[in-house]
Amino acid sequence: MPRLPRGKRMSLIATEHLAVRLGGREVLHHIDLSVAPGEIVTIVGPNGSGKSTLLRALLGVVAPSKGRVTRQPGLRIGYVPQKLHIDPTMPLPVARFLSLPDRQSNARIGEVLARVGVPDVAGQDMTTLSGGQFQRVLLARALLSHPDILILDEATAGLDQPGTAAFYRLIEDVRRELGCAVLSVSHDLHVVMSASDRVICLNGHICCSGAPHVVRAAPEYRALFGYGTGGALALYQHEHDHEHEDHAHAG
Amino acid sequence: MLDDFLMRALIAGLMVALAAGPLGCFVVWRRMAYFGDATAHAAILGVALALGFALNLYVGIILVALAMAMTVAALAGRGWAMDTTLGVLAHSALACGLVAVSYLPGVRVDLTSYLFGDILAVTRADLAVIALGAGAVLALLAWRWRALLTATLSEDLAHAAGINPARERLVLTVALAIVVAVSLKIVGALLIAAMLIIPAAAARNVARTPEAMAVGAIALGALSVWGGLQLSLLQDTPSGPSIVVVAAGLFLATTLGRVALQKRSTR
Asked: What residue ranges are annotated as transmembrane (chain B) (predicted)?
């Protein structure tokens, strides 16, 4: 199993022999994972492989059935969920959303919205944003807490191909500026993998992990994702993304 | 001024509106309307228990309402179908309460006053309890406001920000039990949920932020209490239902106003 040598630095967040049961089924088992400061780690895996459950275990939403999750004391997590349903009965301007749970100054809100490329939406209601704008606002909110680590759960699921590429370029820029670690889950393999320091291939357990080019060549990865070239995969993904064009996020 | 029964009724109603407004917003945002109903209906069972065991009425109601709310929350956590579960619990609690009351020996219980409220019979002691309860709910909601909003938006986001959504749910559950207890005399068990939902839903039509919606729900709820009491006096109608009728009228008016504005802006 190809693996990067562990760094000497203390990890931000780590799991030891983590297992999670949901509804009587063991969704994850024997997960040993750690993310070092500044590292970009991407988790890939087929549907139902436990990717989102792993993130939720790291956040503390679901409790492990075995093993444990250790977080560096005082760790600040910026979390970007896959999607966020805002009930239409709640009026919620973007600026107010960004001030949850901690109040932010208007200047800081304007700054962070400009940083993620949507400078003019502060006064707009959340439900009027397009899919791309919505994801950028979610990212802005995650950045406001000065995170040590950004955790992204299929953050580009609703975006088209150029939108996805732009979003990940933005994540890379932000990582460079803030020096935060990035842990993301994605199915957009070709986009994500090129930007990652380390890729973890998940299917209930960690099948293989390592640098992107190492994982891409690993037999375990091939077994899960087939033998398509990066280019063919990109084309395939592109076809699929047309189903969810970048449209208004109204729920 | 508190010697006047009308003044006592108005003050009691306004205090209930003050607590029910912001709490009602959470009931609407979290789609807990049925949950509110189940808790309110359980209050009748609380009345029966309080009378049967010679407990303080408010204590009996709070205990049973809290037990009901906790049961519902626990069942929801285990993935029961909420719609059906709440339907079963709400009506069972109401029916059990009505049956239990009929067993009480020697007590002539005026059931209609518990089902539909009897705001004109509010005493000074009631006023003190309502003030205490409404004040506690307002303070609780104000204290937890940001955490409650965050947990309402997304439990995952709340976890990531170090907020425990289970604790915030408990805050709302306790607040709901208190509001049910203090509003029973004002609007009655059958219409408590209406005082929670209708002013909040009406405020949604005019508010652009969660805070504005909470304040709007208080204002519209207060207006409903005042209007309902006037209606009750002038037409000799039952006061609880009259308050809800006025609230429903305000909801209709704000909804029509919103639709008209939207039409004009799209033209």
From this structure: 6-29, 41-74, 86-104, 125-145, 174-200, 212-229, 241-261
